[in-house]
Here is the input.
Amino acid sequence: MVHMGMGLICTLFPLVFQATWPVFLLAGTAVAALLVVRSSTVLRTTIGSSLHGVERSSLGEIFFPVAVAAVWYFSLEKPLYFSLSILVLTLADAFAALVGTKYGQQQYTTMEGYKTWEGSFIFFAATFLCIHIPLLLLTTTGRAESVLIALLIGILVMIVEAVAWRGLDNLFIPLCVCILLNVYGSFSASQILVRIAFILLVIVILFFLRPRTKLDDASILGASLITYLAVTAGNWQWAVAPVLVFVNYVLLSKAKNAVGERIHNIHALLAVTLPGLLWLLLYYRQQQQIFFFSYNLAYMAELVCIFIAQWAFEFKERSLVRITLKSSLLSFAMIMGPCFIFIYREVGFAGVALAFVCAMISGQLFRFTQPQIRDCPLDNQRFFRQGLIGFGISAVPWVGMVFSISWPR
Here is the structure.
């Protein structure tokens, strides 16, 4: 009731406020009050009992007003998009929780335990209705377009809700709805239909390969979203690096041990994909070729770390120096080889040499910074280090550009 009550009130903000500061003031006040409730044991068990009654650790009540302020800022010129974004969070998220808890039987694994397919389906259905009906009745969007936009956003945001943890769905859901409405609002029906077919195809393929991996189900859905973003925000060339990393991950996973052993969660997926996603989004905004180079460097560095972690565990008799060298060379050839086919004219021999040096450095950084590397650790600290290596290595060309070194734009 708190979630839905707050959400429905916030949905009406465009009818009440014209400026930004009142919404920011309300959001800031709400965050401060909620932090006071969270920090006080007495308040948590009295007036805050409905907010803190969930068994899992969650910051959802803090993210809610933050999301309201963020979506308000990004939808100043289109107040309807603000209302639809908050409406999806308010109704779809609540209905999914109610139905999943009461009737959910078909479970899928997530980092925090499990969710249910019934709950996710209700989330999709509620999102579809929250978007389709207002677009059809309150805008000039055509009938076919409003249906297809609602379908596509419903699928994508359902995936976001499935992979979110610790209440981050309260932040990610409205932001994603707002961004997607702005992106797809001007698309034709055929353009949207192609994207729906593509995301569904990717989901089917990845779940077909699921028995060959140790990813939990939420991470499989997350991988499908990353692939979708690579192709739609960039083009098919941007999908080559993540697909090669995933193929190698599948080959490294032993099928007989993978079934029923979902030990790689969303943290592992984000460690591998977030560095590259940063450069993809920058390319989408600025259309500079240097970001494609950095994008591939990021996935190359991540593949180096994956190879080292796996082979150091499997072949304990081999020296780490040999394993590191092999991992670096193989990753350089697999990831940067296709990359140079696309952009060799822009980067030239200097780019090849830089990528080779970055591959060598990636291996050494992971070997010397990762404790107990022979045990193939799966803790969050390992994935944090791995992600930092990817960020650092992939930022080298950008740093060179900042200091006026000639790189392709």
In short: The longest strand covers residues 107-110. Confidence is low (pLDDT under 50) at residues 255-260. Residues 1-204 form one domain.
